[in-house]
Model the fold of this input.
Amino acid sequence: MSRKRGAEPGPLPERAPERKKACWGILTSQGSWADRSPLHEAASQGRLLALRTLLAQGYHANIVTIDHVTPLHEACLSGHVACVRALINAGANVNAATIDGVTPLYNCCASGSVGCIELLLQNGAHTHTLQTHFPSALHEACKRGEYTEPEACID
Done:
């Protein structure tokens, strides 16, 4: 009989406690999402009541992560129209860009959320980006077939 099959059940070996690694005050062992605020979480998950409560408690609509991701980026990526509307009404910058040049409009186009796209455009979102290495939101929408005006997709 092998040792594995013949072994008596016993106590599990103790694990060493997991250490948290920090770099410039950011917990790197938790990944790049460690600096997200509760407002980012509420926007990402579409929790409108929580989002409104946090805004009423003083959370700033334009709070950013280390990568300059705003709650509006999160709401747009997830396609939560009501959260996008609430953030815009609270003063969120519709043209905020991450360190990679991603805008909320680009996130809407990438996720295919036409309702969010319309809201952002009605509130002054720019369709083109200054980043030359990154496609514009308009290009992303055309690529995915989400834009309703085909002539706008012709280069």
